[in-house]
């Protein structure tokens, strides 16, 4: 797209590590868009900017969550042949307020401001990806996603925006031309291509998507897969996340507890006392 003189919109970190939609026009800046940011991004004035570029005849690639693509299309009203849209399979987006609390917590722990954040560090592999922070005092934080407080809250569905629990875009009929995702479960379907460095899942949703995809085929290693097999291990493609029973308490208490105490209070798996009692009773019955 950039080689053809087009512009590319996507989610970037700003100087305060908030996530917002921006556009880039050079290859050097692609790095800014790369990598998922597990936070709702601010759309800002990007829809208006897209419209201005389209009206001036420039090609535009707009990437974002499926609801952001649908929002853009509603805003534009009419279809533009110079617009390519790319969405993601989206588990849901956490609240930017929760994210701000988390990064302040990390900065306090490190005693320094952040210089870089990566949500998907593959040092330990793609399946065991880690969250990493670099700080201006040259210290580092690195935790496998399942041990990271923010990712725990995200994956337990306690920090998502309310609209995500009833998402209209959990469907295989996508508003975009192309959908990108992680091919979770690839080891069960194509074990021969699973190198734990990451396999993407790509849905081609329109003729334009098909055309663009056919232009890059020489540069990628690909296999076709039945779409229902492909989403077997990625329920976020078709199902909204179930709201966590303590979501409201979590949000209400966010300014009362430190981030670690908050997540430990509401997200820890507790073995139910009822279950333990039932087990004890079964054993005593047998005796
Ligand atoms: C909030 C969120 C939830 C996700 N949930 C799932 C899931 O359940 N299952 C799954 O298979 N994949 C999920 N993904 C997608 C996955 O993490 C990868 O982004 C996707 O596979 C594309 O990977 P990539 O390496 O090709 O591109 P990446 O480099 O990961 O993606 C970069 C692109 O993603 C866009 N992007 C990044 N963060 C955001 C954001 N906050 N809002 C809007 N657009 C953003 C950027 O604009 C950029 O174009 C999710 C992504 C996000 C942001």
Can you offer a commentary on this structure?
The chain has 287 residues and is an alpha/beta fold. The protein folds into 2 domains: 7-90 and 171-237, no CATH class; 96-160 and 248-286, no CATH class. It is built from 11 helices and 9 strands. A hairpin with a 4-residue loop joins strand 6 (130-135) and strand 7. Helix 5 (149-155) packs parallel to helix 10 (259-267). The longest helix is centred in the middle third of the chain and has 15 residues, at 96-110. It is globular. The structure holds flavin-adenine dinucleotide. Flavin-adenine dinucleotide binds next to strand 1, strand 3 and strand 8.
What's a concise summary of this model?
With 287 residues, this protein is of the alpha/beta class. It has 11 helices and 9 strands.
Uncertain regions spanning at least 5 consecutive residues:
none
Distinct ligands, ions and cofactors found in the model: flavin-adenine dinucleotide
The helical percent reads 25-40%
For the record, give the distance between the C-alpha atoms at the N and C termini, rounded to a whole number.
Answer: 72 Å
Q: Largest sheet, described in full? A: 6 strands, mixed
Q: Helical segment tally?
A: 11
Q: What integer value in Å does the Rg equal? A: 21 Å
> How many beta-strand segments?
9
**What are the secondary-structure elements, in order, as H or E?**
EEHHEHEHEEEHEHEHHHHH
User: Number of folding domains?
Assistant: 2
Numbering strands along the chain, what is their spatial order in the largest sheet? 2-1-3-4-8-9
> Mean pLDDT score, rounded?
94
The proportion of strand residues reads: 15-25%
Shape: globular
Instruction: Find the structural class using helix and strand composition.
Output: alpha/beta
